[in-house]
Amino acid sequence: MLKINKPIVLASASPRRQVLLKQIGLKFTVHPSGIDEDSIQSISPADHVLNLSKKKATEVAKKYDDAIIISADTIVVLEGEIINKPKDPNEAKQMLRKLSGKTHQVYTGFTILDTKTGRFISDFEVTDVKFRELSDEEIDEYVATGSPLDKAGAYGIQDDYGAVFVEKINGCFYNVVGFPLTKFYLRMKEFLSDD
Q1: Over the stretch 94-121, which tens digit does the pLDDT of each residue have?
Q2: Domain region containing 149
Q3: Any idea which residues are catalytic in this one (predicted)?
Q4: DSSP reduced 3-state for 129
Q5: What pLDDT score was predicted for residue 114?
Q6: Can you list the pairs that 41-47 forms with residues at least 24 positions away whose Cβ atoms lie under 8 Å?
Q7: 43 vs 48, which has greater pLDDT?
Q8: If pLDDT is split at 50, 70 and 90, which confidence band does 34 have?
Q9: pLDDT number for residue 3
Q10: CB 65, CB 103: distance < 8 Å
C-alpha cells in the first residue's frame, strides 16, 4: 500500500478516476482544475496528455501549500486524430461511427506534484482498443442514454452499454477506464522513495 503523509488532491471531477484511486486505498479530496482542455495544441497524442495533466496539476497546486496533487487527461486517437469528449449527442454519434470496426488508441497522461517542493513526475500509458462493427440503432440507443457525453471517444468500457462495443484490447484495461493504475502505482512509489 502507498503510505503518503500529506493531503492528496485529485485534480479531476471524473467519477471513474475517483473509484480507481479508492480501489488502491488512497484517500483524497477532489478539486477539478477548470482548465480549458480545448486550448492545448500539441504535436503528438503523448505530448497532449502529458502537457494537459501538467497544466491541471500546476493550476490546482496554486491552492495548496503542502499537498500531493494527482492529475490526469485521457484522449482517444484514431488514425492520428485526437478525439476528445463529444460536445453534443450528434457529435457523439459521429465519433462512434468513426470508431466502428476499427482499432483506436487510448492515451492517458498523469502528473504527481508535491506543492511544497515543486517536484513532479509525469508519465503516460497507451492501450489499443478494437471496436466491432456497430449498427446505427446501437449507436442511437447508446447516445440516447446520455452516458457517452462525458467520455473521451464517446464511450465507456467499464460500466455501461459501451462495454459491448469493444471486441478486444491490447494493454492496460484501467487506462481505457481513464487511469492507468499499475503505471501510476509504480511511479508514485518511485516518487515517494525520492523524498
Answers
A1: 999 999 999 999 999 999 999 999 999 9
A2: 8-193
A3: 73
A4: strand
A5: 97
A6: 45/75, 45/77, 45/82, 45/105, 45/107, 45/126, 46/107, 46/109, 46/124, 46/126
A7: 48
A8: confident
A9: 84
A10: no
Percentage with pLDDT > 70 across the chain: 96
Active site residues: 73
How many domains in the chain?
Answer: 1
Question: If you ran DSSP here, which 8-state letter would residue 176 be given?
Answer: H
Q: Looking up cell 482548465, which residue turns up?
A: 35
Taking each helix axis from N to C end, the angle separating 89-99 and 136-144, rounded to the nearest 10 degrees, works out to 140
| Nearest to 183, CA basis, from 41, 83, 49, 40 | 49
3-state helix, strand, coil split of the chain in percent (to 5) is 40, 25, 35
DSSP 153: G
Amino acid at 65: D
Specify the pTM.
0.92
Q: Is residue 69 part of a domain?
A: yes
DSSP-assigned beta bridge partners for residue 73? 109
CA-based torsion, 161, 166, 167, 172: positive or negative: negative
